[in-house]
Q: What sequence folds into this?
């Protein structure tokens, strides 16, 4: 059986790194894995998505509309934007974090209110405050690894040797911090 994980966010949030760590762990665990990334205007604060599909045999890397088992959103409006990709039985993990887009910053639109409530009314939703936890750990940049931890726990992937994956793929001076961030993320789900 193939499982599909959709990670979405805004450029600079570490969405791509989280998906690469996830993909590496899944491959090392023996799964057939396909990953695709859409960067869009990521360097300008635009939407970013990574699609990770794994199982015994994965034919295509792209998740179709209505095909994601889990949607993990690094920014709350992105969760709403990508919701149509979730399976009817899927679940959402959303970071309670707001990044204003250029039209909002320019005063052309207002950031919509009530996104988290709307999500919770439509699908099973877990809201996390990864920014708060990352700041408590001493580095806001580990927000992405906290969210990776929520994926691992939500998808039942705890038996993969994540410590090795982290140590092999992040700079040694940040390994311990990232391992703590991973543990925090797993505890939030």
A:
């Amino acid at each position: 059986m193939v499982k599909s994980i959709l990670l979405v966010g805004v450029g600079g949030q570490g969405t791509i790194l989280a998906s690469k760590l996830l993909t590496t762990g899944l491959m090392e665990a023996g799964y057939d894995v396909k990953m695709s990334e859409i960067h869009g205007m990521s360097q300008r604060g635009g939407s970013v998505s990574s699609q990770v599909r794994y199982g015994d045999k994965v034919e295509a890397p792209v998740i179709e509309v209505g095909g994601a088992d889990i949607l993990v959103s690094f920014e709350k409006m992105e969760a709403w934007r990508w919701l149509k990709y979730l399976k009817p039985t899927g679940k959402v993990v959303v970071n309670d974090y707001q990044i204003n887009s250029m039209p909002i910053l320019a005063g052309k639109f207002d950031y919509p209110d009530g996104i988290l409530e709307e999500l919770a009314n439509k699908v099973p939703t877990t809201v996390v405050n990864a920014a708060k936890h990352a700041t408590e750990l001493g580095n806001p940049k580990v927000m992405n690894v906290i969210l990776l931890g929520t994926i691992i726990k939500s998808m039942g992937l705890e038996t993969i040797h994540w410590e090795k994956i982290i140590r092999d793929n992040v700079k040694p001076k940040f390994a311990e911090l990232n391992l703590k961030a991973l543990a925090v993320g797993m505890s939030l789900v």
